[in-house]
């Protein structure tokens, strides 16, 4: 017996050692992934920095070359404009010099060999000289009155540029925003994120996602909320999510968070197709009350709402309201009714009235408008009754709309693990998205 006990203890020790080894190997794998993330992000950051500063050098050189060309052109223009009146003055003086040369030559010829017979020639020269106005000289500008070009610049530019360059760019060891939680929804994933840098003051957030098989991320949300439900998610498919933020008063976005992978295993909510009076989107999660004269109820394709989940109806567009309009959940589909204001159903009307098993409650929610989101949350109050065919089954129901909510207990005669959802509108124009 003692040997058997020792063997048993040895087997248990071996199994414990194997478990311990598996755990250590998992931790080694986690360390490898952490090391890989550091090295890959460092390499990517080096590449981004080198590319950015290379682009910056090229841009600065281009701007400096353009500024130099502009200043040189300005020098050319000033030089040409300043030289122009001097050229005109020089032309006038050179004409005067030519006239004076001709007059001197003519006068010297008249004086040489003067006789009584050629005194008329000397008289003609004298009259000509009087008409030329030899005492009239053009004015030449002094040096202080003409342009003297020079170049100036503010030496503080270099100090300012040096300050800007030395403070341009930062390296962060981790992003200021990280994804906190991924919660699967029917046909969607709720993404929650949080700030991890206390000094960072976010103004807006930007969420991107992609299928694991896709190459590029795409924007799915930009706003001030710290959570968003990404819809049109295919079940049992991995998706990657990342988020960044824009600091208060800034234009640039922060670095992206570490991408997180999530998937939804829940069956997407779908409306029942082929119901006259309602047109559905391709994914059957949006129902539009068309202008068909046929009315009545539109139910979900299957009882896909489970207790413990949040069921959301978002009103995309509105039509004319009617007191019998209804949005809510029910135990079974009853096609003979034209509203969920009946037994074994809870709903809200478009005017905000809440009905439980066909009876209107005293508490009322705001009337729904375009963009309103109506949510249903339910939890079982007496789980034990699921195994008991007798007695009542009670669900704690919370209906929220436009920042107000009503809470009540919904008493049923049987256990209901899953429920149908439905809607009814008398007039066309109402469009409802369910998720």
Automatic annotation (TrEMBL):
Annotated coiled-coil segments of the chain: 7-81
GO biological process: negative regulation of cell growth; negative regulation of G1/S transition of mitotic cell cycle; positive regulation of receptor signaling pathway via JAK-STAT; positive regulation of transcription by RNA polymerase II
UniProt xrefs under PROSITE patterns: FN3
Record InterPro entries: FN3_dom (IPR003961), FN3_sf (IPR036116), Ig-like_fold (IPR013783)
Cited SUPFAM superfamilies: Fibronectin type III
Subcellular location: Cytoplasm
Entry GO terms, CC: cytosol; plasma membrane
Keywords: Coiled coil, Cytoplasm
Annotated GO MF terms: identical protein binding
Domain spans labelled Fibronectin type-III: 175-268
Function according to Swiss-Prot or TrEMBL: May play a role in the negative regulation of cell cycle progression.
Sequence similarity: Belongs to the cytokine receptor-like factor 3 family.
Designated name of the protein: Cytokine receptor-like factor 3
Species of the source: Pseudonaja textilis (Eastern brown snake)
Gene name as annotated: CRLF3
